[in-house]
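Thread: "does anyone have the structure for this chain?"

Original post by V.I.:
We have the sequence but no experimental structure in hand. Need at least a predicted one for the grant figures.
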Amino acid sequence: MDDAGFMTAGWAPLPTSGFSAAIGKTWMKGEAGNRVVGLAAHDGIVNDYGAVVHGGALMTFADIALGMGAADAITGHSYVTVQLQYSFAGGVAKGALITCEPELVRKTSSLAFVRGLIKADGAVVGSADGIFKALGPRR
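Reply from O.Q.:
Generated one for you, tokens below.
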């Protein structure tokens, strides 16, 4: 899906910079606590075989998607990933729409525990669990 397709379908671009931008433009739709994060499987994230998305790109996407769930829970503060666990359940073909709906499992005064299924065109291709730590107020 290209940018116009995402926008027509109600997605908004997710601001990313630094390493997070390396996988390309990520998108989101929905409200806090009920978000979907998306990414088009493009040429820049496929492995050396050229037809399957690299596992590192999927893990980076999972970190970004679960981080959105943490951001919803840790409002007003910056946060960092403390732990990320990813289990692969299938490959992702170039051209697929990769999505994740982050789910807040638990929140403490300084940590958010988030999980999500990673899907490609609706089929589960992985699962991820992350722990995110609140830092100081967002600047």
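V.I.: this helps a lot. The two ends are 33 Å apart (CA to CA).
O.Q.: and The mean pLDDT is 93.
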